[in-house]
Structures are given as C-alpha cells and as structure tokens.
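Reopening this one. Same input as before:
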Amino acid sequence: MGYRFLRGPRDFIAYVGMLFFLVSCSEEAGTQPEAPPEPWGYWEEMDIDVGTFRVCEMKVDPAGGAWALVIDKNASDQHILRYAAGAWRAAAEFNPLPFGLNNFYPLAADDMWAVNLIGECYRWRGGKWEMKYRAADELWDIWMVSPDEGWAVGAGGLVVHYKGGVFSEESLGGGTFYGVIFANPSDGWALGSYYDLFHWDGKNWATAVGPFAVSYVQPLGGGKCRAGGKRLSYAVNGLYDGAAWQYEMLPGTSAGGAVLFPNENEGWLVCSAHRSVTRGGQLVAKILHSRNGSWRVDNLTVECKTLGRLVETADGSVMCGGRALAGGGIILRYRPYGGSTGSS
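Same output, byte for byte:
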C-alpha cells in the first residue's frame, strides 16, 4: 500500500493548523508593519446648552468671536449659538429666526446677516430681523467683507452682490453654489456643486478649476488659497499660488473637506474615510493634522458622521462642528497633548 500524505479529515485539519503556525512564526521573525505615528492632539466634545440634531455652520466674526447655526434635536427649529467662557450657549435674542436659514454671517453681536432657502436675505440689527432683499432663487451662503458690502451665492450659479445699500445679481452658470468666502473685498472665492470654483479679483469672476475636485477653500490673500478636495479616491490638500496648483493626495482617506492653516507650518484638513468592514464599513469623519509637511490623524473623542468648517477663535482655539455618528449635533475643540488650548 502506497504512502498517503493526508489520510483523513483529522490530518487535513492538523496540516492547515501547521501552515497557520508557520505563517505566524515567519511574520514574527520578519519585519512588522509600522504602527501609525502618535497623534499630536485630540478633539474634545464641547458643551452645548440646547439639544441639537446637526450643527449646520460655524463662522467667526471680525473680532474673533465664534458663532454657530444649529438645527434642534427635533429637526424642526433653528438656533444661533454664541461661544463664550469656554462653552456654547443659545443666543436667545435672535429668536425667532427667519424661516429656513441656510447660512449666516456675524459682523458683530448686534449685526448679523442671513440667507434662506427661498432666496431671502435678512439683516439683524437694532434687536430685530429685517428682510433686505429677495433673490431670484434659493441662497445657500453669505459672506460680508464689511458692514456695507457682501456676497451671497445660490442655485444655478447665482451670485448676489450688496454694496452701499444696493443689491445686484448675476449668474455664473452651472450647478448650485454652496459656498462663498473672501479674504478682502478684492479677493474672494465661490464653490459650486459640480466642484466649480470661481475667483473674484475685485472686478470679475473667473474660473479657477484645478486638477482635483475642490470642496472647500481657505483664502490666503493675493489671489492665493488653500483647498481641500478629492482626486480619485483620496482626500487632497491643495495650494494655489495665484497661477498654478500644487497638491498632495493623502492615503487612507476618501474625500477632503474643510481646511484651516493658522500659519504656514501647521494646519488641519477634515476628511472622510471608511470604517473597518467588521464595524459596518460606513464613512466617518477624520481630522488630519499637518506639521511642517508631515501628516498625522488626530484622535476624536466622539466618532462623527460629518464635520464642517474649521474655525479659529480670538483665544486661539480651533473648533469644528457637525453630526455625531450616534446622532445629534456636535462641536469639537482641538487640544494638543500636554499643551495649551490653541494650535501649537
């Protein structure tokens, strides 16, 4: 009778076990995968005195005061929050808010602008809201460069300009514009739903589409900007010098969003990434942290489904708002390990 290597089910099981043992031994003896570098800091959840469904937007007024627009826990009413003394509190003086606000811009505690989904533009001053203008279509964002001049954008590439009490409209075409942001009256950016990107030079709007899909811009002045976006299946950190784009694709991510560099050596990029398949495989938000060109992933004390704009306040705190994966609106503040409250 000839020799048989595997003589039955028990031999087969023993053989498979031996293979696993040999593989594990070779992995232990070989080079192990490098562990990700330790994060420089973490993002802690901040106290909010109203139950929220989602933090829609955060902005900082010219004096460095931070504000947020939120939808309440019943997804029915909206509130404006003010950051003071280390916490977020509802600014009840603004209630009731105009119907269906999409965005706002705080000039000061007693002077605020807002736009809504039916194209209305409001100003809060003297203790009351007053509708100042009704656009041809819905408006999604507003940015004031001074108390007497500002811009709003909306559906169908709609751009509304306010200056000296006079409103005017033009259309840049394409899809809906969801974002507008300015460094000064002669240097602004508008972002659209098809990753359209336009730059205002003080006289005209001109397209500034780059080699990746831009989803957020941080103006740097002089026609320059940083941008977060997406190329292929990676988040992108981009830099536009006024003539050409430079960019880097960041592995382990799916798409980039808000970007904030308080100085040229340090900054953050909000991005999305897949959780492990064993935990559902769904997208969650991450915050990447850059120092001197090196990137690490900051720790989040709460897992988040979405995160929006990054803001820096007058006290040097860096914050970000959105929606927690478990539900409910959330505002996070960056804390460096063993350091101060602001960026390090």
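So the earlier flakiness isn't reproducible anymore. For the record, The mean pLDDT is 87.
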